[in-house]
């Protein structure tokens, strides 16, 4: 048997030589400095608004405030716990000399993925994924590819595996580049800074029962894991669209429109709860980590993961069925 | 294992319907080892659809394709292994070099060594440019790289769709020599589709003629495509010449054309003799033109024959 690694090697070679990846890297290399500068400006404004550059006294003040609230007997037990955690976090800032309003590069990459997960990264993925099959059609090379002694499903599987490798590469490079670039401005420290997580929602209320602190590096690993998952779902859907539509422009357009629609719908019509079953309204997975309330009722991390999985599996079924059965006409 | 040890390709009852339209219907033909087989038909006759079925790109609605004894639909991998093909244009990856393209296809088949790649590159005479990107290649070079790609895995049957399309006259001649050499020296069977009668005559041992999705006739190329070609005489006075030509024994189908000329059919070796007779009768002959029969002429002849039979 011609070995499967060879097929994957072929696909990766095509991806690299097509220079799409270079475009994606270039976009990242240009946009991350811009985002870094934007973040820098926000930090500067914050410092100005606080009216003092001495952040240590400010935090000490906040800790004292919180301790005062704790002594009050009217505060419910649940709140009490949250306040204690807050104090713990603020104490850490003091002990380790971290200005929470002017964080290091790790904080930047954590915030960056929060913003990038629902639109920016998916768009980059679409740029490289949408033409993975359709370009073989428009280039006519599909005829060479499918007249080899290799089953069609293997050809498509090799493409899919390469695509997932590519997604992993892009997510990793995003993290690395944003760390390296933002570190120039914010400094490279802060991996162990404690971050709040463990929020949950039920009936529209934020449940803080499970809230706890995790070191930032752990939080970042989780965020990027979730981002990888969301991007993989985007890549899987792109694969299907690329199989169904012969032109690269059409498949890229369809995917972009769908992703943007998913983002817009969540913001425009949070009361229409049916849209939570739409795949691209479920991309903002990191919101569940940070406790940002979801716009639509009834969404949770397991729910979103299941929706993404179901859509991905159906897309794969369609993609493989169509690709193995389809007549390659002109 | 194999039903026809010397038959490289056996096609039976091949039919393809798309929607309600029958693109090709009930095709049957065979190709023996080392044979150059022409598949002749006008554009739109179903040639490309047939080729796409032969290489597994399209599933036939009915019928069977056997390659080297293996059924293409049930034993796809074993069957397709013996085929090398160029379907329509030789479209390779333009952003890769010629060698990278070949290496890529080599990774998709068993047993193609780096030496084999060097060998086919030498065979198609692309040594000098093989490490340049395909997008810098001329059409002729792409065609040759396409053939290199098709020959890479030692196929028994080479399928070429309009192989001289778009080549310049020198390229066409080269391609013809190359194909004959493959068939007659290396024993590879070649299936060539074409809409050019002349080309099939020069290249092929046997020919199938396809028209509107059906094979009208299959047979030895010289038997099928020979016959007396029409000769057109420009003469004056027209009426007198017409009278004389009608009366001569070796001349058939005499017909006056619109542009002051007469079309006849006659054996080639009689042309000089007839010319002499015309001159002796005081008729001025300004030109004698021997027409190559066109594909349309042949179809006309054959379909007429069909309706009579």
From TrEMBL, chain A:
Keyword GTP-binding: no
GO cellular component, one term: plasma membrane
CDD domains the UniProt entry points to: ABC-2_lan_permease-like
Keyword annotations: Membrane, Transmembrane, Transmembrane helix
Listed Pfam families: ABC2_membrane_2
Transmembrane segments: 21-40, 116-134, 155-181, 226-245, 257-279, 299-323
GO molecular function: ABC-type transporter activity
Record's keyword annotation contains rRNA processing: no
Annotated protein name in UniProt: ABC-2 type transport system permease protein
Lineage per the UniProt record: Bacteria, Bacillati, Bacillota, Bacilli, Bacillales
UniProtKB/TrEMBL annotation, chain B:
Assigned keywords, A-Z: ATP-binding, Nucleotide-binding, Transport
Domain ABC transporter as annotated: residue spans: 9-237
Protein name as it appears in the record: ABC-2 type transport system ATP-binding protein
SUPFAM superfamilies listed in its UniProt record: P-loop containing nucleoside triphosphate hydrolases (SSF52540)
Superkingdom of source: Bacteria
Pfam families per record: ABC_tran (PF00005), DrrA1-3_C (PF13732)
CDD domains per record: ABC_BcrA_bacitracin_resist
Protein family according to the UniProt entry: Belongs to the ABC transporter superfamily.
InterPro entries referenced in this protein's UniProt entry, alphabetically: AAA+_ATPase (IPR003593), ABC_transporter-like_ATP-bd (IPR003439), ABC_transporter-like_CS (IPR017871), DrrA1/2-like_C (IPR025302), P-loop_NTPase (IPR027417)
Organism: Marininema halotolerans
MF (Gene Ontology): ATP binding; ATP hydrolysis activity
